[in-house]
Design brief:
Length: about 375
């Protein structure tokens, strides 16, 4: 029997619950020609559960360190800011940095996002590097990473950027199946101004794209419209749901692929979350929950993960308990010290409430098992 289908009697008895488990039959392997095998591999990107075999690789050099970067991004600022349609175009830009000496690389930029494109002064960007141009730079092996920038050119919005970046670090402590990120102090320069003058300098962070995550983990990025509870292994459902519950996130949907990237190997499908500013942990003034959820503030936790098996939930709770001190330590290290002390205290108090919940069987039954999807 598959391990993820074995119910933990101890936890089920403790919580007084029963769980329904979806079982999907696996067809026996059939011999096929090379042509058929090639066709299967090509279809794998669009098929949940398709056979996939890849060897994991090291992350891009930029994601192997955590010390903040500093670089200057020069572009036609007005042109990029105005490009807010459904199909934004690529714009020529230059990224300048200082490594052992001053240097620069060509790059293209494109606005991205939905809500932020309409509401933010600084649109979030997708960068597009040419590999040959970055070969001997800190940006080697990057293709199309995201640049998450401040929404408004104000000091408090920089705080939200660092706080969101911290949540990527938290996820990376819990699982290798999280997008890597790197904090950066970015100076934005308008190429049309003479003399050249910076528009602003603010914190931002780069994240892996789906292909880079695929290279690092050996998994295949899935090009599908969404996934159901039965598509994803029980342990992965528990891990995903508890992380979103920890940070107070309701702004996601596995079924609709909203702020979720699906990955797969030859045995399972995995949901990888991203985009964490609309969370209780960050709590920016522009964030609000969907009215249909019945909560009034993003700080109000609501478990929106899929239901899973009691033993999978028990293992996930144990993992979060084991990682507690390391998670809190992220807010006391050099990057954590970039945040105002009062903001750090608020976030850790917020995490304290999560740990009180997962340490209390009654609250587990009420706030997690009782509200799972």
């Amino acid at each position: 029997m598959r391990r993820d289908l074995v119910v933990s009697v101890a936890l089920a008895s403790l919580l007084g619950l029963t769980f329904a488990v979806d079982v999907r039959a696996q067809a026996p392997a059939q011999q096929s020609t090379k042509k058929e095998e090639k066709a299967k591999k090509k279809a794998a990107a669009d098929t949940l559960g398709a056979p996939i075999a890849r060897a994991p690789k090291e992350p891009a050099p930029i994601f192997r360190q955590e010390a903040p970067l500093a670089f200057t991004l020069t572009m036609n600022w007005g042109q990029v800011r105005k490009d807010r349609g459904q199909t934004p175009t690529w714009h020529v830009a230059t990224l300048a940095y200082r490594d052992s000496a001053a240097a620069s690389v060509p790059v293209r930029v494109r606005p991205r996002g939905i809500w932020r494109l309409k509401n933010c002064d600084l649109p979030p960007l997708r960068l597009n590097f040419t590999k040959d141009s970055t070969k001997h730079s800190p940006f080697a092996k990057l293709d199309k990473p995201k640049l998450v920038s401040v929404c408004k050119d104000k000091d408090e919005y920089e705080e939200y950027i660092v706080e969101e970046y911290q949540l990527y670090r938290v996820l990376n402590l819990l699982t290798p199946l999280g997008f890597r990120a790197r904090l950066a102090k970015v100076t934005y320069v308008d190429s049309t101004k003479v003399p050249v003058k910076p528009v602003t300098t603010r914190w931002a962070f780069l994240t892996e794209d789906a292909d880079e995550l695929s290279e690092r983990t050996g998994l295949r990025a899935m090009n599908v419209t969404g996934a159901t509870r039965g598509d994803i292994q029980a342990d992965e459902l528990a891990m995903f749901g508890l992380f979103q519950f920890l940070i107070g996130n309701t702004d996601f949907a596995i079924g609709a692929l909203h702020n979720v990237q699906l990955m797969a190997d030859d045995t399972a499908t995995y949901a990888v979350p991203y985009d964490f500013d609309w969370t209780g942990a960050v709590n920016p003034p522009y964030a609000f929950p969907n009215p249909s959820l019945g909560i009034r503030r993003v700080e109000e936790r609501l478990y929106r993960g899929f239901c899973t098996t009691p033993d999978a939930l028990e293992r996930a709770i144990r993992l979060f308990g084991e990682k507690k001190e390391q998670i809190y330590g992220l807010y006391r290290d050099d990057i954590g010290k970039l945040m105002p002390p009062d903001r750090v205290k608020r976030i850790l108090d917020y995490y304290d409430d999560f740990y009180r919940t997962i340490g209390d069987p009654k609250r587990i039954r009420r706030d997690i098992v009782g509200t799972c999807l």
